[in-house]
Fold each of these.
Amino acid sequence: MNDDQTYRTLQERQQKEWEATCGRCGACCGVIEGDPCEHLAGTEKGKYFCRIYENRFGLHKTMNGKPFLCVPIRDILHKSWPGDECCGYKRKLKVL
């Protein structure tokens, strides 16, 4: 395996680990506040997922039409939001 392949393999593994950290609670997407992103969907098991995940960053609206800017979770880990105590990323990085 060459250096490029090794690097890509490492990046893919790290991305899977990072994504697996999310508990799919929906708190960072507005579920706890009661006005979630219009693209957020729920599962039968009470978990949430983004219907446009690959294109989620940028300007969007909540279910009630309030505009907001969706940003990478790393950009808001140092902030507080309703329900952030259930955030797997914050617990893993201990930034609660």
Amino acid sequence: MTSIADLRKSYERAELHEEASHADPLKQFDQWLNEAIAAQIPEPNAMTLATVGSNLRPSTRIVLVKGYDARGVVWYTNYDSRKGQELAGNPFAALQFHWVELERTVRIEGRVEKVSDADSDAYFASRPLDSRIGAWASPQSQVITSRSVLVTNAAKYSAQFLLNPPRPPHWGGYRLVPDTWQFWQGRKSRLHDRLRYTPQADGGWLRERLAP
């Protein structure tokens, strides 16, 4: 049996140099995300979301990015879920994308705010019908007795709303407003490339190399 401690990989696919990277981290992220999509990596839009509760214990889960621009990075979820409750008490979070096949990681940290009701309504209306019903049927993060609770709820809300379920009041979008970006590119001999971007008073970004 192979020992986990003996598992090794040499990272040799690419490089990340200051002179070849974008001065704006959003442009660098856009480039890398689009390269991940072009490479047909499974779920390139999947990201780890880390929050911290009132008990100071961190928790993580996978969510899907649904938009990004100069204002920040957006995802949608149940406001009453554990992550929603933790963000209500501590509106700071961290995101991480890990594109294994490209030997790349992007980390983003910052303050989190809710997107507008109009944005949440528009995205909700674009979702498949089953997903819209699911937003009503699942009391996310709450204890339920069995899967039949979900099935029963889905049937109830399907009958109630037919083809036009409205957005639930407990469901909508969040936007992380970045104050730190990190881009990591795997390199040979564990001498990885790692660039950090932090905002400056003039509206630009300070780009610094960190030891891996």
Amino acid sequence: MSEFKNVTVVKKANVYFNGGVTSRTVIFPDGSKKTLGVMMPGEYEFNTGSKEIMEIMSGELDVMLPGSSAWKAVTGGESFEVPANSKFTMKVKTLSDYCCSFIEG
């Protein structure tokens, strides 16, 4: 899906790591949420509350997922899942455009 229709966009930006990662929250009519953002090259560790699906639209990064001892390469057009109540680390190699879906329940 290349666009979202009939959604609410929160104007206030989500800014992490001194601007290394930024996003905007998109709320759908059913109450589900996604964030659309950009990550600059760098290493970032995130904690999750909900299960997340990270879709990388463009860029290149390595991710260390919970329970794994190896980095996984991810490039534009690929995605990965992160369990709820966990943490994961990304080594972003090139400017990366992403969409994060929060899966409740």
Amino acid sequence: MAKKKDPTTDSSSPIDADIQALGYEDAVEKLEELVESIERGDVGLEQSLASYRRGEMLLRHCRSLLDKADLSVREMTLADAENGGSN
């Protein structure tokens, strides 16, 4: 019998459009708010699980933005090196 996928651990689940629209700093701020809310126990179990899932999406979005920024820096560095380092 095949196992069902657990949506809480499925890293391929799509990121919500509202999260996609956030810049890095805003996404980190939202993630921090979620973590603080869960840690304080401000919400019940169901809301904690939903917050955890949203936090995972925020974290993946932040990592994606950082990866894109890293790639941009590497490309600029490579282009600068190919041009002999002159501006």
